[in-house]
Amino acid sequence: MSYPEPRYLGDTGEIDVQFRPDKTPTDVVYPTGGTVDYLATGAATGGQFGMYRWNFGETVTGPDPHFHRTITESFYILSGTVRLYNGQEWIEATAGDFLYVPQGGIHGFKNVPGDEPASMLLLFTPGAPREDYFETLAEVAAGRQLTEEERVEFFLRHDNHWV
Hints:
The protein is α+β, with helices and mostly antiparallel strands and 163 residues long. The chain is built from two helices and eleven strands; from the N terminus they run E-E-E-E-E-E-E-E-E-E-H-H-E.
């Protein structure tokens, strides 16, 4: 394994960083009380990665087992308990636990309601445009109806393949 080819070819470095304070208003709010914070979108990272903080609400939510053909997905649990599907079984993950899913890896996640709210980081590589995915799911949870054709197109457009 070696470092990739340089992408920055200058000699002095640049002042070109992005800071997102913790107090930044959340980007997506679900009717269940869950939220998504866009920490680093694929657009902001030049397509290298996308990182999001997923804060669960008090009801059980999360996708059933599925896979992606084009992106990897990683989960890092910040607080609470999250059920992660590792391709064979649901496991209970707690703060500090990590799961990496390569392209084609079957996975899913659900929160475990309890005394402590659950929160996790989601990292996608490369940085696919997941924002529309999260926002449309929030609209559907709030009552927006998709036809079967729209639903199929939506999941295919966002590289979600159900098993």
